[in-house]
Design a protein that fits this description.
The structure is a homodimer. Chain A has a single domain, classed as Alpha-Beta Plaits. Chain A is 32% helix and 34% strand. Chain A contains two helices and four strands; from the N terminus they run βαββαβ. In chain A, strands 2-3-1-4 form a four-stranded antiparallel sheet, with helices on one face.
Chain lengths: 68, 68
């Protein structure tokens, strides 16, 4: 397991938190995901053997946000 | 039918638009509802004989927004 903090632009409200946490959390290999709306960050704990960081970033972008 | 423009604070993203338009639009007597995110307004067309403006305001506030 590895935990990474991503800087994500465009998350503005509780719906955005739910969209990111809900959809990233559904990915196989993702153990935990936590959005900090004030900081604009997403902490993700995941198993690199199961899911890539690239796939996680892609999922966030599919929800309509920019990952820096 | 009457159309009223409400000033609503706190709507920030497409999810907020969907929450307001979807839930207000479900009320009996509401014919049309349109959020303008940039202006912070909600245009509602409704039948005063079926639904009150107070009930519409309440529904928006239940979604977590402040109606001025």
């Amino acid at each position: 397991m590895e935990t990474t903090t991503l800087n994500v632009k465009g998350m503005t409200c509780g719906h955005c938190v739910a969209a990111v946490e809900g959809n990233v959390g559904k990915l196989d290999g993702v153990n935990a995901v936590k959005v900090d709306l004030g900081k604009g960050t997403v902490d993700v704990t995941f198993d690199q053997g199961v899911v890539s960081l690239a796939a996680i970033r892609e999922e966030i972008e599919e929800q309509g946000y920019d990952v820096e």
